Structures are given as structure tokens and as C-alpha cells.
Amino acid sequence: MTLISSKLMYIGVISVIIIAVASYGLFFYFQRVNETSIRESIFEQELERQINSTKSVSQHVGSDLRLVTSMLQGLADSLYIQNEMLSGDNVNNLLQEKFNQLNSVTKVDSLLITDNEGVITTHKASVGMKTFVNIDISSNDYMKQTMESLQPVYSNGFTGIDGKYRIVITYPITSVKDGHYIGTVVANLPTIEFFKNYGNVNDINSQFLVAFDRNGNLLAVGASGDLVGKNFFGNETQQFINYNKVLNNLTQYLLAGNAGHAMYDYGKGERLNTQSPVLVGTQPVYFVQVVTPTDRIYLKINSVLFTEGIKMFSLLTGTTAAIIFLVFLLRKWYGILENEVAKRTRDLNESNYKLMKANESLKIKDEAQNQFINVAAHELRTPIQPILNAIYLLQSADLSTAKKNQYIDIIKRNTEKLGRLAEDILDVTRIESNTLKLMKERVNLYDLILNIVEEYKRNIQLIHKDLVVNYESPDRTIFITGDKLRLNQVLLNLLDNAGKFTKKGSITVTTAIMSKKVQVTVKDTGVGIHPEIFPKLFSKFVTKSDRGTGLGLFISKNIIEAHGGKIWAKSSSQQEGATFIFTLPLIDKENGESQEENDEKND
After folding, report:
1. DSSP 406-420
2. Residue 517's beta-bridge partner residues?
3. Positive or negative, the Cα torsion across 32, 38, 41, 43?
4. Rounded CA gap, 126 and 162, in Å?
5. How far apart are CA 533 and CA 530, in angstroms?
């Protein structure tokens, strides 16, 4: 018996050792597979984040270029300049004021005005820089392009007489009366100071920004300052990057107007490069690349993997010790161990699942926040600039009453637009915090819709004369319990939405009494609802329009549902018109309560 027991113990010990060795071997194998999977997943997330960041940088640069151009336009349209007063104290003061405004947006070295021959008449420059008057600059390429096209020009890079590398934005001065050419407004921007507003342009050992003009000249670069002003495909730059083929192909693709990304190593460590053209209108004027040393990305990945590896290794060690302890002491504990391992496995899976869901939730929130910032920034900037220009023009000189009224009307319209945007954002906040309150009262829905449709018809036909707006209802008394202001808001949202996509044709509103409820339909003959938009039509920030925040339908859905109704949409498969439908409970004619409230009491 002793011999048998010894053999069994020996076999048990050997079995435990084999199991332990095999377990550790499998652990390291699956750990390597798991690490590879996690590494690839995190790297893909970082890549996607950098692609979105690069796109955002290019959009920000383009937005600031348009803002500078708008301010130059305001100067070109001012009263003194339009009267062809291109010099003198008044023009000097006007130019100084505009120069200060431009420098509040971005660094501008100088601002000048030329006559129609390209001769400088007035010049403002930063402290320490020389000013030039009566100098002919018509031979410069950007002046030739401006005088030929009579359009704003965004120049390629060039080296000034002080050795600083710059770009120029010009705006032609043309008479608002007969369109003849008067001169040009010219703003000089130092490229390094301009582009460092959008990213690091100094340190190659961290994420940095590279900017190009249309000829491939470097406007800003996080490597060596000596490369600014050099052509990317020139010998000096190519020596710096060791003639790297991947980077050359990627940059050629960018200069052709295309976004993209790639990884490469030109001898200074592996890099992740994402790129995007800078658009003004639909044309690329400059190009940016965001470059990140991949060791920065892998450092973050390795930290996560190390922590997870310690957890897994600790778990395996504890499990092995428990197995040995149970095998040698009490075999009956085997069942307990099996249950514990199963429980820990479930806990681990649950933890991984929660971690995955948390990452997905953070990603969705991050995307929603970026989308909200982009939408809000665009929608806020659109009305603010016309307001500023109108105020500036009101202050700049004596104006006729008609002109003053015109500028005041611009301020009024755009202020109202800002107000509507603020109200939409507040409504979304109320909805998401469950604080949306309704001031319900007895309402004749027929009268409410009729008034809104008539008012909308008057306004829209001033813009689209070929658009017909009708209201059709077999019933003139349709009583509901509701909030008049909120129901007005829903109907105006649906009519405005139809008007955006229906330049001519018709918009028809109909009401129909159904069992215990009224159905309201808004149908148009426009382009219909884009298939990509349809599944998420009533979500926030969903729009294919070039204006609007995409909040209207989201707010409308929540208002209708707060009234106990439902809202949905239909779209023709040929994209010939869209139909929006919502229902509301009717008031019981006997006791004045809504049908749903009456049913609840009866129940």
C-alpha cells in the first residue's frame, strides 16, 4: 500500500509539474496573441483619432483663412476706399484699426493697400519692421493673379527682404457701383507664427505639424527651421528624409488634393503621418501633415499591456498554487476550485466586456463632443462675422438712412439666428436632463396650423416664388391639450426642413381625424431624405444640409412624445419628396380630457 501510495504521489507530482509547465506555456502563448490583438486595436484607435484630429486642423486653418479674407473684404468695401481715397489720415486710421483686428485673430506682419497700378499707397507693419510707400509690387505673382482674376488670392510661400518666410492673402478693391478695379488689399502672414497656432512646429521628437504651399514648399515643419522655404522634393529636404519613397509618395498624393496616412522610417525612428488639404471653398490652398513618432503610441500601448500582463500572470500563479494545494491536501476541494476558476473566468469576461463597453461609450461621447464643437463653432461663426462687419461699417463713416437700416437689418437677422441656435442647444439640454416642461392648454389645432402655414407661406415665397405651400383639412375644430409654443416650434421645424430641400414645387400640410387621435402630415416634392441619413433621422446633429445644426428633428421628436404622440418619416425610393407625420391625442368632447387621459381613468 505504501509503495502504491508513493507511486501515486510521484505520478501526482509529475502530473502537477507537467500541468504547471503546460499552463505557463499556454499562458505566454495566449498572452502574446492577446497582446498582438490589443496592440492592433489600440493602434487603430490612435490612427483614427489622429486622422480626425488632422482633418479638424485643416478645417480650422481654412476657417481662419476665410475669416482673414472676410476682414480684408470689409476693408475693401469701406466708404473711404470705395471713394478711391487710398491714402491720407482717415485711411491710415482705418488701416491701423483693421491691422489690430487681424492680429487679434492671427499674427500678421503687415497690411497694405495698392492702387490699380500695383503701387503701395498706405502701409502698416509690426513694430520694428519698415513700411514702404510708392513702391511698385505689381510684378509679384500674387498681385498679377489678383489683378487678372479680381478674386482673393492665397499665395505660395516666399522669403521677404528681412529673410522671414511668409504667405500673402490679397483681396481686390472693386467699385460697388460699376465694378471697375480700384486697387488691392494685401496682408502678409509669417508662416511659422501662423501655423504654430494649430500644432507643434518645433520639436521633431513629439507629434508635430508640417505645412506646404501648392508648389510643395515647406511653410512650417517640426524638424529643422532651415528647411522652411525649401521645396519638399528638393535635394536638401530629400537628404534630410533619406529620399524615403513612402513619404515622397504620400506627399505627392497630398499635393494632388487628397487626404491619407502612412507609416515610414527615414532614419530617425518610425513615424505615423496623417494628412489633409486645407480648403477655402472647394479649392485646396495649403496642405498639412500631422506626424507622430510611433514610440509615443507604443509607450501607451505597452503600459496597458504590462498592467494586463501582471494581472493575468498573478491570476495564473494563484490558480496554479491553488491547484497544487488542493491536489496534495484534499482532493474533495477539486470541485470548489473548479467553481472558483469558473467564477473568476466569468468575472474576467465581465470585466473585459465592461471595459469594452466603457471604451465604446467614451468613443461615442468623444465623437459627439467633437461633432457638437464643430457644428456649434461653424453655426456661431457664420452669423457673428456679418454682425461684426455691419457694426464696423456703421461706426466707420457717415451713412445714409437706407444704408444704416440695411446694416441694422443684417445685425437683427443674424442676432435672431444666434438666439435660435442658443434656444436649440438649451432645448437639447432640457430634454437630456428630463427638465423639458410643457404649458398645456386647450388648443384648436386647425387654427394653430393655419396661422403657422400662412405666416410661413408669406415668408418663404419672398425667397422661392415657385414654391407653393398649402394646408388641407376636412375638419375646422380639432381640439387637443398641448403647449402652443412647443407645437409651433415642431411645425416650423418641419416646414423649414421641407423648405431647405424644396426650391420649387409644393409643401402640403394635412390633418386627419383618426380613432382617439389626430394625424398631421407635412409632405414636400423636394429631393427626399438621403438613405444614409434616414435610419438616424431623429438623432442629434444629423444633417446633409449646408446650414443648420441637425437638432430640429431631435427636439421635435421629444416635444411630440412629451405630448403623448408619435412622429416618423417616409421618403420616396426615387428621392422625390419627403413626408413627415406625427400624431397627437384628441380631447374627449364630453369631459374635455384627452382620449388617453380618459382611458386611464376608466381603467
Report:
1. HHHHHHHHHHHHHHH
2. 514, 585
3. negative
4. 13
5. 5
Beta bridge partners of 277: 287
3-class SS of residue 423: helix
467-472 vs 505-514, strand pairing mode: parallel
Classify domain 441-602 at the CATH superfamily level.
Answer: Histidine kinase-like ATPase, C-terminal domain (3.30.565.10)
The cell numbers describing 142, all together, are: 500674387
User: If residue 578 lies in a helix (H) or strand (E), which one and from where to where?
Assistant: strand 578-585
Length of the chain: 603
Tell me yes or no: is domain 35-302 CATH 3.30.450.20.
yes
- The count of other CB atoms within 10 Å of the CB of residue 548 is 17
Strand ranges in 401-516 using DSSP code E only, listed in sequence order: 441-444, 467-472, 479-482, 505-514
- pLDDT > 70 in the chain, percent: 78
159 grid coordinates: 522669403
Q: Which three cell numbers stand for residue 27?
A: 499562458
Cell numbers given for 287 = 496642405
Answer whether 276's CB lies under 8 Å from 250's CB.
Answer: no
Q: What is the per-residue pLDDT across 394-443, written as a single tens digit (0 to 9) for each?
A: 777 677 778 778 778 778 767 866 776 776 677 677 777 777 888 999 99
Q: State the burial class of residue 184 (Cβ atoms within 10 Å of its Cβ: 0-12, 13-18, 19+).
A: buried
CA 580 to chain centre: 27
The predicted pLDDT at position 324 comes to 58
Give the start-to-end residue ranges of the domains of the chain: 35-302, 330-435, 441-602
Evaluate whether 384 touches 414 at the Cβ level (below 8 Å).
Answer: yes
| Grid cell listed for 293 | 513618432
- CA 403 to CA 531: how far, in whole Å? 45
Quick one: DSSP state of residue 219? E
Q: Which residues contact 432 (CB under 8 A, 6 or more apart)?
A: none
Which segments within 247-282 are labelled E, that is strand? 260-265, 270-280
Using CA atoms, how far apart are residues 196 and 208, in angstroms rounded to an integer?
10
Q: What are phi and psi of 189, to 5 degrees?
A: -115, 125
Helix, strand, coil content of the chain in percent (nearest 5): 50, 20, 25
Is the model's pTM score more than 0.90?
Answer: no
- What gap in Å lies between CA 385 and CA 3, rounded to an integer? 96
Torsions phi, psi of 573, nearest 5?
-65, -20
Provide the strand spans (E) within 77-128: 110-115, 120-125
Question: What three-state secondary structure class fits 294?
Answer: helix
Please tell me whether residue 211 adopts helix, strand or coil conformation: strand
291 DSSP β-pair partners = 208, 273
Fold adopted by 330-435: Helix Hairpins (1.10.287)
> Do residues 578 and 526 lie in contact, with contact meaning Cβ atoms separated by under 8 Å?
yes
3-state SS string over 310-335? HHHHHHHHHHHHHHHHHHHCCCCHHH
* Tens digit of each residue's pLDDT (9 = 90 or more) over 260-309: 999 999 888 899 999 999 999 899 999 999 999 988 777 766 666 566 66
Q: Cβ distance 201 to 60 under 8 Å? A: no
DSSP H or E segment with residue 570: strand 566-571
